[in-house]
Structures are given as C-alpha cells and as structure tokens.
TrEMBL record:
Keyword Cell cycle in annotation: no
Similarity field: Belongs to the 5-formyltetrahydrofolate cyclo-ligase family.
Record protein name field: 5-formyltetrahydrofolate cyclo-ligase
Organism: Alteromonas portus
Residues annotated as transmembrane: none
Keywords: ATP-binding, Ligase, Magnesium, Metal-binding, Nucleotide-binding
Length: 206
C-alpha cells in the first residue's frame, strides 16, 4: 500500500531528527509509563527490542527488569532461521552475546536452550513507526510481528485457548509518531496498549 509506505518514510524521518537529549528523555519517560502500566504488574516474561532506527530506547526499562530479584525476565526477538518472515524470542540477560542480523539489528546469538515460546511471553513490547488513538499500528513493513502473532486474532482454528496463549501486545513510540488515522491492512494485529513518553492508551480487543 503506497499510502502506508509514504507515511512510514515520513514518520521514520521525523523520529531520526530527535536530538540525543530528546531520545534520552523519551527512554526515561517510557520506562516510567511502563512501570505504571497495570498489565505488566504480574507479568514474569516480557519481550521487547533493542533500539534501531530511532525508536524509543528500552534500556532503562530493561535494566529495571534485570534488577527485580529474578521475578521477571526479558526476551528479545530473533529472525527465525527456518520459518522465514517469522520471529523467535530468546532470553536476554546482561551476559547474553549479541550479533547483528541481516537488517543490522542486534539480537541474541541463537541457542535452542534460550528460546522462549511466544505463548510463554506475558507481554511483548513492540516498536512502532506510527499509531493512532484507536490503537492501529504501523510497523517497519516486514510483517514479522504480524505473522508471528497472527494466532492472537483467533483465526487459526485452535480448539482450546490454552493451546495458544496470547501475550499482551504493547506498542512503544515517540509522541511525534501519532497520526489522526492510519490506513489499516487486514493482517494488522491489534494492540492492547500504546505507550509514549507522555501517555498510555489502553484498548479492549473485540
């Protein structure tokens, strides 16, 4: 969709213009917003991302998760080596060794013993390129999250909800990435919440 591609470029350019001080302030404020988000209170496994291309940096929040006396653990997405276009999630600690994937994004070195099934993630913090107040999201365009999380839309025919437990999905973005209305694609996976440096939006999925 051309409209989405043009909007994506505009919003990516906008967040790249933010100064170092603005990025640092955003990272600290988003960490505070996440600490106040109720759906994270009882979450033990939280997946997120490492900053790339001007997203909000989660470094302060990740550091807080690491220092919760072992009560919470963090995970990062890794490009799936077999199911092309999908993601795996791997445990991420202070000792994790990282490598760069084909998009020049850091990710943990693949190790089967560190894989965390997506259904064991209580919450996934997702980087957004754009969003609107209705909870619609615009990603980087690769479709990795939409494919990996398509089961959360209850369209896959599983007989029991316990077979595929859906994580809560929280989009993370700068305030300047908000638009009045996003063009929606049928494969877009809806969010449970969106967190920016200035506010938190929560949604009820139908």
């Amino acid at each position: 969709m051309q409209a989405r591609a043009q909007l994506r470029k505009k919003l990516r350019d906008a967040r790249r213009t933010l100064s170092y001080e603005q990025h640092e302030d955003a990272a600290k404020r988003v960490a505070s917003q996440l600490n106040a988000l109720p759906l994270l209170d009882n979450s033990t496994t939280i997946a997120g991302y490492l900053v790339n291309d001007g997203e909000v940096n989660l470094k302060y929040y990740i550091d807080q998760v690491w220092h919760t006396s072992g009560k919470k653990k963090f995970a990062l997405p890794v490009l799936h080596p077999v199911c092309k276009g999908h993601l795996l999630f791997l445990s991420y600690t202070q000792n994790s060794k990282l490598t760069f994937n084909k998009y020049k994004i850091e990710e943990p070195i693949l190790s089967c013993q560190n894989v965390i099934p997506v259904t064991q993630c209580d919450v996934i913090l997702m980087p957004l390129v754009g969003f609107d107040s209705m909870g619609n999201r615009l990603g980087m365009g690769g479709g990795y999250y939409d494919r990996t999380l398509s089961f959360t839309q209850n369209k896959t025919g599983f007989h029991s909800p316990s077979e595929k437990r859906a994580p809560k999905l929280v989009g993370i973005a700068h305030d300047i990435q908000e638009v009045d209305a996003l063009p929606i694609a049928p494969w877009d996976v809806p969010l449970d919440a969106i967190v920016t440096p200035s506010r938190t939006l929560q949604f009820t999925k139908s």
